Predict the 3D structure of the following.
Amino acid sequence: MTTNQSSRSDPNDRELRLWKVGRALTLTFATAVLVAGGVFYGLVMLLDFKEIDTTAKLDAKTLFDLVKLSFGVVAGAGALVALVVAYRRQRVDETGAHREATRLHTERFTTAVSQLGDDSPAVRLGGVHALAGLADDAPDDNLRQTCIDVLCAYLQLPFTPDPGTHPTDQEEHHRYLAFRKVRHTILRLIGDHYRRPCGTHRSWQGCDLDLTGVTIDGSMNFSGAVFSGGTVDFSSAVFSGGTVLFGDAVFSGGTVLFGDAVFSGGTVLFGDAAFSGGTVSFTGAVFSGDTVSFGAATFSGGKVDFNNATFSGGVVSFNAAKFSGGEVFFGGAVFSGGTVPFNLAMFSRGTVSFGEATFSGGTVLFGDAAFSGGTVSFTGAVFSGDTVSFGAAIFSGGKVDFNNATFSGGEVHFSRARFSGGTVSFAGATFSENVGFVDCLFSGGTVSFWESAGPAPIGLLEAVGNPMPAEVHMRHDWLSLIQ
């Protein structure tokens, strides 16, 4: 992501476009006359003057009043001229002050950037803090964004991997750790600034943040950060170690991108995060190791996209998450291993859990999702509103668990789903009249509806048919309906 500086308007540029004095005075006088005339006419109408007595003679008092009025008009005109001149002088002074601040900022910026290229890690660390301070003190948003862009660009630069701790590599290993500290300091400073309230000093909320392709191999704290404007881009970033915290973060506007990001190590936590607006994209992201948690996260607005995500290892948890509005897409997700949940996304190993999750509004789509291995758990999940769709999903391996789930409202579709392998259990689930298994295909694996409550889902008995496949375990009273 490259910041388009030319697309941002700078109010200080407009301050230089001053009218000529003659034009400014003419317009000012014309405006003053119109305003005075309007006030006079309003007073006449308000006091209900019928007509002016034209027979009265001009006495000394009236003449004196006219002279005073004339001087008042002249004085008012002089005041207008002084006001226009003072206003122009103030504008020019402000522009000059801004130019001087910009010049000083540029000089400090040049020094800080040269420090980032120094061979000494300590000097680079000083350059990082200098650039962060420049962003805080920048005279306008464009200059602040430039400082942030440079810090992000440093993180995107290729770096030499750790040579190891062999005695012959000790010096290079220490050098690697020193430069790694510089990178982690940038990440820490970014998190600190995004947690500060918008509009306050040192807050970077609303600025663009380009971390495309960055390797995050250490801890980063975005807890309580607010992403309410601008674009924050983690596309193709690699989370390979440490703990990255997005707990209590608020995604209420703007765009946050994790497309094609790789979560291959460490712990990434979105616990209690609020997704209430804007767009958050995990399209094509790969969850292949350790832990990624959306536990107790709230999806109440905007768009959250997990389309074509791959869940192939580690643990991905949506326990106690609340889906009450907006759109959450899992199209093309692949669940092929471990314990997992989601739509055309790919889950090939690891664990994904929606245990006790609440789907009470909005639309959640798992259509065409492939559950081919591992464990996907919806144990105790509550489907009480709007639409959740598993249409055309493929259950061909592993275990998918809907035990004790509650389908009490909205619509839940398994239409055209294919159960060809593995184990799918609805034991103890409670069904309402809005759960459909129309045109489902049961050709293998085991599907269980033991001890479930409520009416038989729409289309389930027709899909099972008679004789019922041995791998489908049905309630006795439902069996009587088939027979």
Remarks:
- Residues 1-16, 338-350 have pLDDT under 50 and may be disordered.
- Helices lie at 11-14, 21-47, 60-116, 121-137, 141-156, 170-195, 460-464, 476-482.
- Residues 384 and 409 are 4 Å apart (CA to CA).
- The radius of gyration is 34 Å.
